[in-house]
Amino acid sequence: MKKILRTILWAVAVLIVVIIIKTFTFKSQQISVWESVVPPAGIEAAERLAGAIRIATVSYETDMPIDSGAFTAFHQYLFDTYPAVHEAITPMVFNDFSLLYEWKGSNPALKPVVLMAHMDVVPPGETDLWTRAPFSGEIDEEFIWGRGTLDDKGALIQIMEAVEKLISEGFTPARTYYIAFGHDEEIGGNRGAEAIASYLTDIGVEAEFVADEGMAITVGMVPMMESPVALIGTSEKGYLSVRLSVTMDGGHSSTPENESAVTLIADAVSRLNKKQLKARISGPVDDFISYVGPEMPFYAKVIFANKWIFKPLLLKIYTGSSSGNALVRTTTAPTIISAGTKDNVIPNSASAVVNFRILAGETTDDILTHIREVVPDERIVIGILPGRGEPAPVSPADVYGFRSILKTIQQVYPEAVVAPTIMLASSDSKHYTEVSQNIYRFAPLIVTSDDMARIHGIDERVRTEDFLRGITYFYYLIRNSNDEEME
User: Fold this and answer.
1) What is the pLDDT of residues 220-237, one digit of tens each?
2) From the candidates 102, 120, 152, 295, which is the catalytic residue?
């Protein structure tokens, strides 16, 4: 018995030593950047964003007509507002409304860079709930208000401000920059970004990297982190929406059967919501752990440095919040339930739409199999809605493009810890996988969970200071990614 106890104590001691060694050798992935940055734009740039917000370039649904007047007016606004850009570059137009600027570099041996944003916005919803009118572009002491300030006209105007400034200074890039502005990102990007990406592929463009919207600088949103965390999406989740529908006899509500179309659909939705796919650490989240872990307080650093033993605890921590849960699981979200027209009539049919955002390493076919396993009732028909897409390939975090973004963030936002991760939503960059293997999704926004709720929600707004800082980010990203010495 004593021998067994000694063996156990010895094993525990070895385990503790291994944990300590791994914790103290868990090295920081951040870099020290000593160069100071000079803001390239003044407060007047805020009014230029406000002007862009006042043009209601709304995308409604894929089968609804486009407000061509709004998008044409937006093109003219860019032309009038950024004369240096348009004197140097004539943009190409795709499917009437998407724009591609080719800013030619002096060294054709260098691979080009693609900078992306989109000009369309989602509808404002119930406009009477907004504090400021959604397309007012109002500027107060702290914020610029309106639909698109966060998603994604803010980034579009930041890019244009940065390029206008660089051209005005006489800057000539060594590598070519393609600046791509899609017009239908909010409804899938099939006529905008897809067309531009196809063109770039057809002419043989192999980009050094592609930079699009996506993640941001989060404040108070990463568990156990006091510092802001700048998250760079190295992949994005897949997308699948299904409609569950059932048709069966209805009747009068005074003599109900044990089952009805409504009860079957309600049960199916409840089953899917309760039995979700297992949480796990995907490749991008594994990278996230290696970047964030060394910057955490010691107790948390111990956990992150030793995920081989603390993995269950890590998953429990992250599944404890909605944003954390989305990082480690394919999420299940019932979004629409339809049935019935009268309170005393049992309907003959009922349906529900359930949306899945799919973690890297799983496929849409995996999700369809999961649905049928959880809801085995053959009376329920499963239909796949438009928009089905697989998770994006994972881009590496040890290459020139990622390092350029990392350096720029740490120049402009030295208070932030930088980390790769998986983007939880979808972006136009999903169409660019043939253009580059290095696609990074980051917008220079400083956001809290409250700010995140404003994206596609009520009272979308951006702090004026943060918007201006984002111009500095793009200005230096172009300069940093143009540095041949970093190759």
Assistant:
1) 988 888 899 999 999 999
2) 120
